Queue: 2 jobs
Job 1
Amino acid sequence: MSIFDRVALSTLPLIPTPVMRRLAGRYIAGERLDEAIARLQNLRDAGYPGIVDVLGEDVHDERQARGVVAQYVTTARAVAEARLDAYVSVKPTHVGLKLGEDLCFELYDTLARECASLGLRLRVEMEDHPTTDGTLRVFERLRARHAHVGIVLQARLFRTLDDIRRLAPGPLDVRLVKGIYLEPAAIAHTEPEPIRAAFVECARLLAERKAQLSLATHDELLAERVLPELTRRGYGKTDYEFQVLLGVREPLWATWRAAGHTVRVYVPYGPEWRPYSTRRLRKNPQIFRHVMRDTLLFWRS
Ligand SMILES: Cc1cc2nc3c(=O)[nH]c(=O)nc-3n(C[C@H](O)[C@H](O)[C@H](O)COP(=O)(O)OP(=O)(O)OC[C@H]3O[C@@H](n4cnc5c(N)ncnc54)[C@H](O)[C@@H]3O)c2cc1C
């Protein structure tokens, strides 16, 4: 991490909440479910299906973890009631992974049943490397029961190609990402170009497995490299989609959409936006730089 990043990140706790809220506002739908639903409806009207995430991670006890699942159930019902093409995406540590894999499995399973009854998909997200094994074990147990549950895999981790090979045979739904957590060089690629190359390699392997693929990226150069690999392996436009974060590179969404690709937008909401945003920014100062640059451009325009 550069000295600039260290100094900039050390000021984060000092930024007043209204200013942080303004910084975060572009990337987060709001604190309430109705704000998330309204944002998803706007996106739908503009031609973009959605993903909804209740902000938070690392719950401290079982009561909290059960509360999170209850919130997700309410969210899933609201999405179905509004007839949105959207699904829910959940971090394992938000539903108790660090308290125990059985608890985490039970809570995901409860939510998966609810989602199935509503006709919605469910995505198990991927967090930092100490949680990878547990997340994959929980996912494999879920996958044995539920065809509509997908996973996230991180291209930057050296282990991911082997993880893909180790996943049980059968239908597979994967959101492929570069990986937001800055992992140690002993276990992960740390430079942009090797991360891109690893992403292409993972996409190739997943395509050989005929996985349903979500390419979650805002990197058009990467997309240009991945798409021919998919086409070569017989993928049509319904076999994959692009996924993007709310507020990030909207002109690129429009370009991809105009080219006939599905572009699905990730919409996070919830009262825990400040600790979440701060942790995110600490984990990846690159995003802090994006935010500061965009904010400066916004103020200058
Ligand atoms: C739908 C979705 C779900 C995700 N889920 C996970 C997950 O479960 N686990 C996980 O580890 N990671 C997840 N990620 C994050 C992912 O791993 C990357 O950190 C993130 O997408 C940035 O990488 P990139 O491929 O866009 O490439 P980058 O090279 O980081 O970015 C490409 C360009 O996009 C712009 N950009 C990227 N991010 C931002 C930002 N936040 N603000 C402003 N501009 C930005 C910049 O202009 C940059 O030059 C998810 C990403 C998406 C889109």
Job 2
Amino acid sequence: MAKILVTGGCGYIGSHTVVDLIQNGYEVISIDNNSRSNPEVLKGIETITGKAVKNYKVDLCSYDDTYAVFRRIPI
Ligand SMILES: NC(=O)c1ccc[n+]([C@@H]2O[C@H](COP(=O)([O-])OP(=O)(O)OC[C@H]3O[C@@H](n4cnc5c(N)ncnc54)[C@H](O)[C@@H]3O)[C@@H](O)[C@H]2O)c1
């Protein structure tokens, strides 16, 4: 199963994109620091799709923190 990283996966466009990707067979990982969103949205995604989505609460403006996610998971 192809794995896709969605930035801002807890936001408006991101969360809808995550649902669409899951429904089309992708495994989705999100990076979102929740500066403009509520992590509770992930529960809604799971309710709709039946799949839990892992979100890394990381500031994408931080190279080191973002790079650390890529080191942890092969995308
Ligand atoms: N909603 C629209 O109709 C629309 C239209 C055109 C363009 N856009 C653009 O698309 C993008 C997403 O729009 P949206 O409506 O989903 O916004 P949104 O605020 O709902 O989602 C953005 C997400 O990114 C996260 N985020 C912000 N800064 C971050 C950072 N530094 N590190 C990690 N996560 C961060 C926020 O917490 C949020 O969950 C924005 O750039 C917006 O300007 C939106």
